[in-house]
Amino acid sequence: MKDLYFDTAHMLGTAVLLLSFALLFQRRISGVINTFALQATMLALAAAWQAFVQDAPHLYVTALVALLFKAVAIPVALHRIVRLLMIHRTVETALSIGLTMVVGVALVTLAILLVLPVTSDSAALTRENLALALSVVLLGLLMMITRRNAVTQVIGFMSLENGLILAAIGVSGMPLVVEMSVAFAVMVAFIIFGIFFFQIRERFDTLDLHYLESFRGERS
Amino acid sequence: MLIPILIALVPLLALGPATLIAPRSAAAHWGVYAGTAALSGLIAAAALSHLLLESSPQHAGLPIGLPWLTARFRLDSLSAFFLLVVNGGAAAAAAYGIGYGRHEREPERVLPAFPLFIAAMNLTLLADDAFSFLVSWETMSLTSWVLVLATHREPDTLRAAQLYLIMASGGTLLLLLAFGVLAQVTGGYDFDSIRTSALTPGAAALALALGFLGTGSKAGLVPLHAWLPLAHPAAPSHVSALMSGVMTKVALYGMVRILFDLVGEVPWWWGGIMMALGGATAVIGVLFATMEQDLKRLLAYSTVENIGIVVTGLGLAAAFRDNGMNEIAGLAFAAALLHILNHAVFKSLLFLGAGAVATATGTRDLGRLGGLIGRMPQTAFAMLVGAGAIAALPPLNGFVSEWLLFQAVLKGPLLPQWELKIAAAVVAALLALAAALAASCFVRAFGIAFLGRPRSPEAAAAVEVEPAMRWTLLALAALCLLLGVLPMLALTPMGRLGEAVIGAAAVRTDSSWLWLTPPAAGGNSYGGVIVLAVIAGFGVLTRIGIHNLASRRLRRAAPWACGFDAPVAPAQYSASSFAQPLRRVFASLVRAEERVEMPEPGDLRAARFASSWRDASWDLLYQPVGAAVGWLSLTLNQLQFLTIRKYLSLMFAALVGLLFLVAVTQ
After folding, report:
1. Which of B643, B655, B663 sits opposite A213 (nearest CB)?
2. Residues in B touching A145 (Cβ below 8 Å)
3. Does B648 touch chain A (CB under 8 A)?
4. Which residue has the higher pLDDT, B538 or B371?
5. Residue A94 sits at the chain B interface (C-beta within 8 Å)
6. How far apart are CA A78 and CA A69, in angstroms?
């Protein structure tokens, strides 16, 4: 029975990581948003599974928050924004997709090499989980810096948050307050970014940060 | 004697700020100069008594600075010797300042910093932990920088002061790093724990290099010397005397303290490097001194030369000691220390004399001086003695220390390493060249400034300076003669110092005061009194011979006036024409250029001749470094204007880099 718990948790964590990679090779904005929704769903499942395994009912709340806000509300809102604002539908990359994937694999290797020796005295579940979570965080950061469009950057940021939550739920005894605050932080970030989008739209008629740079006088 | 010295430093520290109440009053003037002279004299006397009577170091801890730290002070024979040098020079400069300071246009810029500068130098010598040392060292740099800025109305001063500030900060940074290496991970910053801790050879070499460069940049080692001929002459003359005669000695103290005391074991190859750099410094310094047209800048370049001589002596001492030849090491070390003392005396004398000339004529340009010997006879006499001493003429003091140093250099073939054998031979040649060039340099300086006819109306109108200045000059000149005739007076007290630092003294303490016979010199000896007697005897004999034995037959002939037939000043030797042969010989080294502009036939313009020379360290070191710093700043400046994504990338790279470091170092 123990093995099943472990394997399932491991599988769900790996699914989150796999979807992080999937985020990196999407070429269309709608694909990115959908993949992010799927990742959030997987995160919710992982949280629910951990709630069941650890017998910690408050994690069900986390799972619910993740499912409702991140898997449903935010993707829907983003789809709306993209449609309403007539944002360019393709992902604009700063680093080609193939190279991004190579870097991503290197980052995952680094995360595993880093976490596994450091936490050698912890439970196996925590160790693997931490390695997966760190990989997700690094891939989220990678997405933020290799994609130009603001929407993809916001999604990269939220994917990074997913990694944090994945790390938090893997550790038994983490109080609910933390998860809630993380969820709210994401909410706040979403609102702020939403306002930001509209302002960019109003002022510059585009969401491409490239135009912002030329406005600031950094490019001619 | 440590406690009385520290007590004497308190009023010295208080004097400067106290003058701020009424900086232009006569009370401030007298208080600072007379007070500083008296206090420095007291400290010098205390240091001398320690050097003569005490053998064990004295310690004191004062609760100054951060609450959990004590500032440690220590008086041992090394710091006592340097205290004597520093406070002797300071007392002379302050006594001179009683007269000289009256001509100061803005005394409020000099008076507050003057005693602070001297107190900071004293504290540097007494410091027994890295914090006190560095704080005192930096205070010394900053107060002297303020003093340089006292002449801020002169056009070159600002540039000189800026360069000085940069070089001083750089030197302090190197020293900071050196102490960091010395203190190791355990972080014992008091000198006692640094002495006892053992360094790995790599760390020791790093500490040696950092300490040597840090103190060497302050002392004026080539190629770090270029700030010195700008900054030292820019200050008022009594401050120039302090900076050149005394502050460079504090830098050398730092070098001896770090190399021979804190690091302890200086390897022979490091001694070889010091010898080579010292020899190069000596020659290059004096070459530029020979070209220089400005009297005070000439003296500053000559300081560079003398620092080179001292560093050569220190390097020789290190090389001999590492090979177990303590006797010869003691000889070289004593030569270096004696030269430090001598240089402090004659360089103070020369700078103060240059100040007297500048006060009397209003110019330091050799091309506008001349004929001062008749107008300022006492100053001229004192300057003549100083020039003779710095040119190493017996029976003056400069000769003794250079003679001792040559005794040590000539033992170079005894060294086992072939590199050192060659280096010693080359260095001996370089030192001989430097000594010869120094003689020609000061023949030129004295001859152009004091002999011949005045080259400007100001020089023609010069009158002798006031007594306080003259008497200081004459006292220093007398000291030059005394130390030259009776060198044992200085060497005997230094015996204990040599034993403490190197393990051997140059002379036995019980040897006769008349003859200087270092046992390591293999039977060579020098008797100053005898030399003086012989010179005086020959002088009297010559005079008798000329007056009594020469033919009394009357002859009439047109006098030969050395080619100086027309009585016009420009027909004389000028400062640059005197230097021309050397400038041509060493043209590639001093980057000398001569240009003649001939007008076309039929054109009535006068032909023009222009000659120039240049300190190569500007082109080879200072400007490339300056350009590199400028390029780096411009490049880094672009970091201010990155895009958001690039800032994120930088953070990401830093994060990944650190994670990678953690992963690798586990």
Report:
1. B643
2. 645, 648-649, 652
3. yes
4. B538
5. yes
6. 12
Q: What is the ipTM of this complex?
A: 0.81
Overall size of chain A counted in residues: 220
Q: Is the dihedral of CA A198, A201, A207, A210 positive or negative?
A: negative
| A220 belongs to a structural domain | no
Instruction: Report DSSP letters for B544-606, one per residue.
Output: HIIIIIS-------PPP-TT--S--GGGS--HHHHHHHHHHHTHHHHT-EEEEEPPPTT--SP
Containing domain of residue A64, as a range?
Answer: 2-215
CB atoms within 10 A of CB B373: 18
Q: List chain A residues with CB under 8 Å of B645.
A: 94, 144-145, 148, 153, 209
Residue A14 lies in a domain: yes
pLDDT band at B284 (very low <50, low <70, confident <90, very high): very high
Cβ proximity of B511 and B526 under 8 Å: no
Answer yes or no: do A94 and B645 touch at CB < 8 A. yes
- If phi > 0 it is left, if psi is from -120 to 50 it is alpha, else beta; for residue B650 that is alpha
What's the gap in Å between the CA of B634 and the closest CA on chain A?
16
For chain B, the average pLDDT equals: 89
Do A145 and B645 count as a contact with CB atoms less than 8 A apart?
yes
Do A148 and B659 lie within an 8 Å CB cutoff? no
What residues contact residue A88 under an 8 Å CB cut-off, 6+ apart? A29, A149, A206, A207, A208
Minimal Cβ distance to B652: which of A113, A145, A213: A145
Measured between beta carbons, which residues in chain B are less than 8 angstroms from residue A118? 662, 666
The answer to whether residue A165 sits within a structural domain is yes
What CA–CA distance (Å, rounded) separates A74 from B652?
26
Closest approach of A141 to chain B, Cα-based (Å): 7
CA-closest candidate to residue B290, choices B434, B403, B468, B170: B434
Domain count, chain A: 1
Of B643, B648, B662, the CB nearest to A144: B648
Contact B445, B298 (CB under 8 A): yes
Copy the structure tokens of residue B361.
């004529």
Given a contact cutoff of 8 angstroms between Cβ atoms, the answer to whether B653 and A106 are in contact is: no
In this structure, what token pair is assigned to residue B634? 């411009």
pTM as predicted = 0.81
Element (DSSP H or E) covering residue A213: helix A209-215
d(CA B216, CA B218): 5
Q: Inform me whether the C-beta atom of residue A202 falls under 8 Å from chain B C-beta atoms.
A: no
Give the integer Cα–Cα distance in Å for B167 and A74: 60
- Quote the minimal CA–CA distance from B663 to chain A in Å: 5
**Is residue B144 within 8 Å of residue B240, measured between CB atoms?**
no
> Do B102 and B359 touch, CB atoms closer than 8 A?
no
Four-point Cα dihedral B95, B96, B98, B104, nearest 10: -150
Three-class DSSP category at B611: strand
Query: Is the confidence at residue B99, as pLDDT, over 80?
Result: yes
Across chain A, which distance is largest between two alpha carbons, in Å? 64
A118 at B interface, C-beta within 8 A: yes
- Distance, CA of B503 to CA of B499 (rounded, Å): 4
pLDDT of residue A187: 65
Distance from CA of B631 to the nearest CA of A (A): 20
Domain ranges, ordered by start, for chain B = 1-56+67-197, 616-665
Q: What is the pLDDT of residues A150-209, one digit of tens each?
A: 778 778 888 888 888 888 887 776 666 456 556 656 765 665 566 556 656 655 555 566
For tokens 């010693």, name the residue.
B424
The three-class DSSP label of residue B525 is coil
Is any Cβ of chain B less than 8 angstroms from the Cβ of A99? no
Nearest CA to B251 out of B57, B401, B389, B120 is that of B120
B59/B573 Cα distance (integer angstroms): 57
> What percentage of chain B carries pLDDT values higher than 90?
48
